[in-house]
């Protein structure tokens, strides 16, 4: 993807989408991510391992026990999260509410071999809309996935209506879900028109790629996305978004001391 000049500069300080060894197909620990994030100048990271419906994904106790993670490690705030799998046409997720409600941030996304295989645009769209209607879901990951095409206008409108964010996933343009670019541009442009919110995630599966947003940032530049619409542009903006979702942001006290 060629670099393009745009109206804005993007210096994103929080990476909300990191997978550890608990995802089964990732290769770094929480501490390794925290150390890498500190070296790259990130303010916060969210550990968002895959839910149990994905082969090798975190089990229920992994997510239940995330409370033992330090809030601040190497001067980086550690948020407790999940990339839950959307497992049916109604938008059902693979973790129970009693666990989801304990997390700082809940991502949800469509993945193959998790129970819902995406038979049509209509069914995919209905599944994503169902997840967006879940009050515990905050972000829909890689909704531009060409393996699960959706009615992006309907998804963007629902995200704005529900006060949630759609993700621009850097990994989609490098390793997985190749062919996402055009749909992602349409998504970002539509969210901009509607005054909605985007999340930018590295979707790193090894600590060396924590905070890697370069390809995602090109999408933001190409669509003249206002930096203020990116929920993880700064730790302050992230806290503002999560408070709007009714989340406990007491970790901000740790952030002030970091």
What does this entry show, briefly?
32% of the residues lie in helices and 15% in strands.
Key traits:
258 residues; alpha/beta; TIM Barrel; eight-stranded mixed sheet
What does this structure look like?
With 258 residues, this protein is α/β, with parallel strands linked by helices. The chain has a single domain, classed as Alpha-Beta Barrel (TIM Barrel). It has helices at 30-39, 60-64, 97-100, 121-133, 152-162, 181-194, 214-222, 235-244, 252-257; strands at 14-18, 44-47, 72-73, 76-85, 105-109, 139-140, 165-169, 197-201. Strands 1, 2, 3, 4, 5, 6, 7 and 8 form an 8-stranded mixed beta sheet that branches. Strand 6, helix 5 (152-162) and strand 7 (165-169) form a beta-alpha-beta unit. It is globular. The mean pLDDT is 95.
For the record, the CATH class is Alpha Beta
Global mean pLDDT: 95
Weakly predicted, low-confidence segments? none
- What class do helices, strands and sheet pairing give? alpha/beta
- The CATH architecture name reads Alpha-Beta Barrel
The largest β sheet comes out as: 8 strands, mixed
How many DSSP E strands? 8
Count of DSSP H/I helices = 9
End-to-end separation: 36 Å
What letter string, H or E per element, gives the SSE order?
Answer: EHEHEEHEHEHEHEHHH
- What is the H level of CATH, i.e. the homologous superfamily? Metal-dependent hydrolases
| Count of all domains | 1
* Shape annotation: globular
Radius of gyration: 17 Å
Question: Level of helix content?
Answer: 25-40%
Provide the CATH topology: TIM Barrel
> Which percent band covers the strand fraction?
5-15%
């Amino acid at each position: 993807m060629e670099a393009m000049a745009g109206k804005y500069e993007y210096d994103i300080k929080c990476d909300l989408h990191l997978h550890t060894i608990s995802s089964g197909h990732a290769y770094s620990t929480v501490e390794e991510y925290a150390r890498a994030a500190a070296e790259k100048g990130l303010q916060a990271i969210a550990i968002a391992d895959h839910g149990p419906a994905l082969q090798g994904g975190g089990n229920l106790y992994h997510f239940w026990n995330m409370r033992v993670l330090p809030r601040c490690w190497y001067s980086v705030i550690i948020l407790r999260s999940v990339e839950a799998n959307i497992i049916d046409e109604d938008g059902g997720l693979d973790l129970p509410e009693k666990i989801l409600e304990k997390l700082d941030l809940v991502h949800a996304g469509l993945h193959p071999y998790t129970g819902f295989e995406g038979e049509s645009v209509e069914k995919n769209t209905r599944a994503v809309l169902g997840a967006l209607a879940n009050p515990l879901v905050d972000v829909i990951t890689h909704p531009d996935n060409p393996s699960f095409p959706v009615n992006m206008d309907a998804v963007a409108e629902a995200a704005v209506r529900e006060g949630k964010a759609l993700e621009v996933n850097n990994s989609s343009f490098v390793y997985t879900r190749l062919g996402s670019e055009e749909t992602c541009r349409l998504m970002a442009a539509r969210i901009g028109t509607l005054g909605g919110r985007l999340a930018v995630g590295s979707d790193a599966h090894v600590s060396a790629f924590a905070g890697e947003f370069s390809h995602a940032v090109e999408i933001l530049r190409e669509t003249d996305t206002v930096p203020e619409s990116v929920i993880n542009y700064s730790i302050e903006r992230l806290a503002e978004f999560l408070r709007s979702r009714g989340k406990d942001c007491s970790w901000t006290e740790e952030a002030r001391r970091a």
